[in-house]
Amino acid sequence: MKKFFIVSAVALVSTFTVAPSANASTNLAQSLCEYVSADDKKRLRSFLKSNNLKIRSVFDGVQCNGQNLLEFASSQNAIKTGSLMINKLPKSKVADTIASITSAELAEKANKRVNG
Question: Which residues pair with 68 in a beta bridge?
Answer without folding.
Answer: 63
